[in-house]
Amino acid sequence: MSKDTLLRWCLAASSVLITLLLLEAGLRVYAHMRQRASEVAWQNLGAPRLPPVQRGNVTLPQLIRPSANPKVIYELIPNQSVQFLDQQVTVSALGFRGPAVAPVKPRDTKRIVGLGDSLMFGWGVGDTEYYLALIAERLANQAPRRPVEVINSAVPGYNTVMEVETLKERLLQFMPDVVIIEYVDNDLDLPNFLDRPPSPVSVDRLFLHDWIAARLAGRVWDPVHRLAIAPRDPFRERRFEGNPDRVPTQYRALVGIEAYRTAMAELQALGVAQHFAVVVFSRAQFPDDIAAVCNALGLPMVSAWPALERYLTEHGGGRYEESALALSANDPHPSALGHRLMADVLFDYLEQTGLP
Fold first, then answer.
1. What is the reported pLDDT for 220?
2. Cβ-defined contacts of 139-146 (< 8 Å, 24+)
3. Residue 278 and residue 136: Cα distance in Å, rounded?
4. Where are the beta strands (DSSP E) in 184-305?
5. Tally of CB atoms within 10 A around 143
6. Would you state the torsion angle of the CA atoms of residues 9, 12, 16, 18, taken in this order, to the nearest 10 degrees?
7. How far is C-alpha 126 from the chain's CA centre?
8. In 85-158, beta strands by DSSP E
9. What pLDDT sits at residue 224?
10. Helix, strand, coil: what percent of the chain each, to 5?
11. In sequence order, what are the beta bridge partners of 331?
12. DSSP reduced 3-state for 219
């Protein structure tokens, strides 16, 4: 190879390297600016926020922000209309999925408030497909002259303590007539799937690599991860943790059966004081310890599992996770069909009991 050819190759390689370094530096500057803007917004949760991402699939960290309430930890960012898991997700100005509801309840209007996590939120299904939206539609069609408004306050990852705290802080003003609290098997646990923002001066990662990977996956790259629950802790290796001794000290009152018992007793007392009915709903069967808490408090339990089992039997048997009731074999969240069957069960219960 001649010296001229070698020189041209070196110049070309240098140009490519300089271009990559400039791109990496630009992404780091962008990340720093985004993180600073978000930190300012988080310090004043009422301030205008960065405009929500409108194109491509967003990730869960892009849907949430820290809460000023340490028992709530995080909440949905208000005023969003995005694609999440290839489905339309609309978050109202209230910070809840679904249509906004006026704080002042109109005369002769009944209200249902849902407390839950990813299942009630409608993980993997569209705005009109999760079971609370289906119940709202049925109630509107059945008795248009007797309006019923439904508020879905569920947020992916919430446990029972976080849900009841959300009711106390943000939902009592809406004067609910019925509160439906959903039980799932991680309701005694602390969520641990949120991350801290990557440092713009970090040397152990390439921002350009992250940006390219996000683009190839059809996601919007966002360097602003919202929150770290337990940084640099072995607990972070697990998605949820139910042992109070293994979670950070400030979150121990949110975890375990005693935390569940305390939260449910508080919910039952609020129902008496604020004159709303409480219904405990579950896709699955209720574990003995959960059923014991609810029975002791006189709270009715409604399980959709018999209806789901009946569907499985009528369609050849098999496991729930491998059926049309689940999103996929790797994701047991209910599909649109699963939500329809759960809506059937819950709607029948509401109708039979005269609620709301």
1. 62
2. 139/347, 146/108, 146/110
3. 17
4. 190-191, 240-241, 277-282, 301-303
5. 11
6. 110
7. 14
8. 87-91, 110-115, 148-152
9. 63
10. 45, 15, 40
11. 328
12. strand
Q: Give the distance from CA 180 to its chain's centroid.
A: 16
Q: Parse the chain into domains and list their residue ranges.
A: 91-192+246-353
* Structural tokens at position 317: 């048997």
Task: With CA atoms as reference, report the closest residue to 337 among 307, 295, 292.
Answer: 307
3-state SS, residue 54: coil
Place of tokens 């000290």: 249
Give the residue from 132, 245, 109, 261 showing the smallest Cα distance to 190.
245
For residue 314, CA distances in Å to 12, 307, 327, 347, 348 come to: 66, 11, 19, 22, 20
Q: What is the mean pLDDT of each run of 10 residues along the chain (356 residues)?
A: 74 82 85 70 44 64 83 90 93 94 91 97 97 96 85 96 97 97 94 65 78 72 54 50 79 93 98 98 98 98 98 94 95 97 97 92
> Hey, what are 186's tokens?
């991680």
Distance (Å, whole) CA 226 – CA 197: 7
Amino acid at 107: R
d(CA 94, CA 109): 19
> Would you tell me the crossing angle of helices 131-142 and 336-353 to the nearest 10 degrees?
50
Q: How much is the CA Rg of the chain, to the nearest whole Å?
A: 24
CATH topology of domain 91-192+246-353: Rossmann fold (3.40.50)
Catalogue the E-assigned strands of the chain.
Answer: 57-58, 64-66, 74-76, 80-84, 87-91, 110-115, 148-152, 178-183, 190-191, 240-241, 277-282, 301-303, 326-328, 331-334
